[in-house]
Amino acid sequence: MKIAIMGAMPEEISPILEKIGSYKTTNYAGNKYYEASYKGIDLIIAYSKIGKVFSTLTAATMIEHFGAQKLLFSGVAGAISPTLKVGDLIVATKLSQHDLDITAFGHPYGYVPEGAVFIEADKQMIEMSKDVAKSMGKIVQEGIIATGDQFVANEDRKNWIGATFNADALEMEGGSVAVVCNALNIPFFILRAISDAADMDASFSFDEFLQTSAKESAEFVMNMVDKLAD
Ligand code: OS5
After folding, report:
1. Which CATH number fits the domain that encloses residue 113?
2. Stretch 20-31: mean pLDDT, rounded?
3. What pLDDT is stored for residue 98 in this prediction?
4. Which residue of the set 88, 168, 171, 196 is catalytic?
5. What are phi and psi of 164, to 5 degrees?
6. Is 107 exposed, middle or buried (0-12, 13-18, 19+ CB in 10 A)?
7. Which of 28, 45, 106, 192 counts the highest number of beta carbons within 10 A?
8. What is the mean pLDDT of the segment spanning 157-180?
9. Whole domain around residue 57: which residue ranges?
10. Is position 199 annotated as part of the catalytic site?
């Protein structure tokens, strides 16, 4: 079994690389890919760089070039739901692209012909995450994550995304990773820890909490990997 673990920023995968300890580094298509053997399973780990295009490239590369059979994403997100505070964990049940807009042709936001507004994450890994949360004594909220090529630092935009997609959190990569995995039939799991509230203070909050929230998410994802290795 080969499992891909990806983040968007170096901070999102560095706790994972620290835990793994030793790995082989390969440069491919402008990114570094880290291969390791861990508890009897093969891991391929990378950060994509920020946004939908880079994350699409990385997810597709991990699957098509490195042979990943499952993909887990670890990172941070902006909260939409008022129940989500900095450091809280959210598991995506389904994901959408909030900046995809051909509504001029009568289509709903987030939809293009032959696509879908929402893509569902792997139900088995979501179920497994409940056991992992229990074993860690953590609360993990399930919800909808909306993705777009924008760092949202605006209450109106955040509220619009929340109302339009019924989304609980937002970020810049999960929705595109979901499209890739869905098209290639690869089960995927997207976990995010909250770094900010996508409001006018978002950039300050993000800078302050990126490292600690990324670490929270990475620790949880590694516990998921431990369970997958059992
Ligand atoms: O990957 C991007 C999306 N992430 C989730 C997220 C988010 N997304 C949208 N809106 C929000 N309010 C969100 N909160 C959390 C986080 C990340 C956001 S973009 C951050 C860019 C910060 C940065 N810019 N320059 N550097 C860091 C330094 C740098 C310089 C050179 C090379 C690499 C980094």
Report:
1. 3.40.50.1580
2. 97
3. 98
4. 196
5. -75, -40
6. middle
7. 192
8. 98
9. 2-229
10. no
